[in-house]
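Let's practice the habit of predicting before peeking. Look at the sequence and jot down your guess about where helices and strands might fall. Then scroll down.
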Amino acid sequence: MTQHCIEIVTYKVDDLAEADRQRDIARKRAAGLPGFGGWLPLSGGKDQSARADVVLWASPEAAEAAAEVVGSTAEFAHFRATITEFGGVGHYAAPAEALALMQSGDGIEIGRFRLLQGVSEEAMRTAHAKMIAGHQSRQPGWRGQRLVRLRDGTFIDIAFAATEARSQAICDSWAGSANCEAFLSLIEPISMEFGSIA
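Done guessing? Here is the structure:
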């Protein structure tokens, strides 16, 4: 699986309201760039003009390509114009399973399942990882995925996406995918629900 990249950008602004507005526009535009995984906008606790943006990318290469787009194209010019002092940018290796930097309105799918008789958790987790690497992470709008083991022996697969509609579309894309079918052959689905982050 590709090594995910966390980008941290620090800067200062003068007009707080306009900076907030332009940052939100920039975040929505960045969501369309290849490899985008989420953008967590932070403001200083004491100094509200101090900003830090934590952005998740699918790879260091995706982060570098996006930095070129954000730093030089007209569609991000108004966002750049709100920055009065640039602090710096750093790229860091993300955990192997990546993160999901979710915002209000982002989509979520929650699938609950149990293992079929004779299937080990290790085999299921291997198939789940292959499904993410070979299918899920390649779908537009996919933001990340987590497995949760419950005390009763069942599991919850939580998948994050750009919107609730993208969550549904990604789920619908499983048909015909060898990686998805291999995972499904090991489990007994219990329930599946879709929603969005409030």
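How did you do? The chain is about 30% helix and 35% strand.
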